[in-house]
Amino acid sequence: MGKAAERAGRDPSSVTLVAVSKKIPPAAIRQAVESGVRELGENYVQELCEKQAALAFLADLGVSWHYIGRLQKNKAKDVVGRVALLHGVDSSELARIVDKHAQAHGILQDVLVQVNVAGEATKAGIPPADLPGLLETVAPLSGIRCLGLTTIPPPATFPEENRRHFRVLAKLAAQHHLPHLSMGMSDDFEVAIEEGATLVRIGTAIFGPRRS
Q1: Element (H, E) at 39
Q2: How many structural domains is the chain composed of?
Q3: Which one of 30, 43, 60, 125 has the fewest beta carbons within 10 angstroms of its own beta carbon?
Q4: Under DSSP, is residue 88 helix (H, G, I), strand (E, B) or coil?
């Protein structure tokens, strides 16, 4: 991470590592935290809740949780307030639901908007053209704050193939004065950092292959 940031003329501390711990047992997560990991990302609501209960002591170590999976509207109530950052708001309706639950808890829930930069039919996220409208929806809501954007590009044979997608997301964030970009995973995080990622989601490179 540090070398990629330096190549881009960036301070390595401007990039946050989110260790993707889905399907990883608590014991392995504890080892990662003991090695210095402080941000954990989960994809499934039930798994998030179970791990937070099993690893409650991590809060005392300054560990933060992120929800990085696709969030169903009826599950929002179980995630809001549990995570420092909710990656993946992809509709005005979901934004309003998150806001409603955040207000009920008396908190401000930080989120990222997911953008489908490649236009893949199988991927979540809004088209780039719909971003201004969604940001206008979020702006007046008192329980939700958009800190940036996230995307998951198409599978690539070489990391360099995803550079153009990361560049599009970075341009969108700059246009809307959003400070954070969550992009890049184990195979392409260096390219993502070079294009401006402030959060990278890395699982396999930390924990190894996941159990099925």
Answers
A1: strand 39-42
A2: 1
A3: 60
A4: strand
Axis-axis angle for helices 45-54, 26-34 (nearest 10): 60
What is the C-alpha separation between 66 and 110, in angstroms, rounded?
10
Place of tokens 């109530």: 77
Q: Is the pTM of this model over 0.85?
A: yes
Please give the pLDDT value at position 5.
Answer: 65
In angstroms, rounded to a whole number, what is the distance separating the alpha carbons of residues 104 and 25?
Answer: 32
Q: Is pLDDT above 70 for 156? A: yes
Strand partners, 119: none
> Higher-confidence residue: 154 or 4?
154
Its domain, for residue 105, covers 2-207
pLDDT of residue 8: 67
Look at residue 159 and tell me if it is in a domain.
yes
